[in-house]
């Protein structure tokens, strides 16, 4: 029998546009202590640590955990090829649901700037998809730029974001073109940081915690090889069908639909990706994302707030950390502790994360 999974502790460092210093072990230790305090637990309550890191070796990671009081806890460090934080979250949920563990700490450490794979090829595919979208649906380049403007407006209220400066529509449009029609502020660039959270079984949460509860009610994981891509699909090269499949699986598991989601953190590696995800995740019909953006239905005052943290466009891409940071934002939203970023009456939250290999993990959270 599967068990429910609760998120009971969160903590992270500010993201940084430069590699972490040699004192990154201290930063990890501080983050771990922050999570334990947030959960009201001691190191002895933790059954295991699942960690994903950039260049930090196991010895350094063990030393860092020791600074947080977890030096003697079992450590499972994921290999570089499987170190995306979305994989970390999925593996931990699977272990708890299967009854293999009661409480696990997830730790993401991005101490060195990630190398984005085959950047020239990726940019070429993004440019082609953006131009195809404009041609097919008569969308304007201004719509893509509006997504970047929204991201910076949200990040203005997030002290952990790298890019806090607001941008006007003209500033985004007039910035250096990376691949037409997308300009520099319309991409998420590599950053570094540390994030951690505590997951546990629902039974453990009821015994050991007293704060507002946040429960994972469904989770879907889809790899590209599982999806049949339609011939001539213009957006398949950037994973559109994989995202659709993950969303459908997620909603079927939960018995909820996209209309029930009030806040979402999604993998906005570019403004084009975010625009297409509005449609793939079911927040609007195919070809109608432009209307959603221009109606303001992706921000405060609309039907759905997307990336209240500022998203990857404002925090940057940190593969070992970004997925945990998304979870942390949503947990704080559902707890009602997001401060000026708080989404009113947030009850159901959706997280979407895409790994470097194209694997998509989508998760639904509910305030208890």
Brief characterization of the structure:
It is built from 12 helices and 12 strands. With 368 residues, the protein is an alpha/beta fold.
Termini separation (Å)? 21 Å
**Percent range for β-strand residues:** 15-25%
Number of strands: 12
Shape: globular
Oligomer: single chain
Radius of gyration, in Å, reads 19 Å
Which sequence of strands runs across the widest sheet?
A: 3-2-4-7-1-8-12-11-9-10
The succession of helices and strands, N to C, reads EHEHEHEHHHEEEHEHEHHEHHEE
Number of helices: 12
Unreliable parts: none
Largest sheet: 10 strands, mixed
The chain-level mean pLDDT equals 91
Helix content: 25-40%
| Secondary-structure content class | alpha/beta
């Amino acid at each position: 029998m599967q068990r429910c999974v609760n998120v009971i502790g969160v903590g992270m460092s500010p993201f940084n546009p430069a590699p972490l210093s040699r004192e990154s072990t201290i930063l990890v230790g501080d983050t771990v202590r922050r999570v334990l305090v947030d959960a009201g637990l001691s190191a002895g309550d933790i059954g295991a640590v699942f960690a994903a890191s950039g260049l930090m070796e196991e010895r350094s990671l063990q030393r860092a955990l020791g600074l947080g009081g977890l030096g003697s806890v079992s450590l499972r460090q994921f290999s570089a090829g499987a170190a995306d934080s979305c994989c970390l979250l999925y593996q931990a949920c699977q272990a708890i649901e299967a009854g293999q563990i009661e409480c696990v700490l997830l730790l993401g450490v991005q101490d060195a700037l990630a190398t984005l794979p085959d950047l020239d090829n990726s940019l070429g595919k993004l440019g082609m998809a953006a131009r195809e979208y404009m041609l097919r649906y008569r969308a304007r380049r201004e719509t893509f730029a509006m997504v970047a403007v929204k991201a910076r407006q949200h990040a203005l209220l997030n002290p952990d974001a790298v890019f806090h400066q607001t941008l006007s529509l003209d500033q985004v449009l007039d910035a250096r073109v990376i691949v037409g029609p997308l300009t520099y502020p319309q991409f998420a660039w590599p950053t570094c940081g540390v994030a951690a959270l505590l997951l546990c079984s629902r039974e453990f949460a009821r015994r050991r915690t007293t704060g507002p509860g946040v429960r994972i009610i469904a989770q879907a994981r889809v790899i590209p090889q599982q999806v049949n891509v339609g011939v001539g699909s213009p957006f398949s090269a950037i994973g559109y069908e994989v995202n659709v499949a993950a969303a459908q699986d997620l909603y079927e598991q939960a018995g909820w639909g996209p209309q029930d989601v009030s806040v979402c953190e999604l993998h906005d590696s570019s403004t084009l990706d975010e625009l297409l995800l509005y449609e793939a995740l079911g927040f609007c019909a195919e070809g109608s994302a432009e209307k959603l953006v221009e109606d303001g239905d992706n921000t405060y005052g609309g039907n759905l707030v997307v990336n209240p943290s500022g998203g990857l466009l404002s925090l940057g891409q940190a593969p070992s950390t970004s997925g945990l940071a998304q979870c942390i934002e949503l947990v704080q939203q559902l707890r009602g502790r997001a401060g000026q970023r708080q989404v009113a009456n947030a009850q159901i939250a959706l997280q979407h994360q895409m790994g470097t290999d194209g694997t998509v993990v989508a998760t639904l959270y509910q305030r208890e």
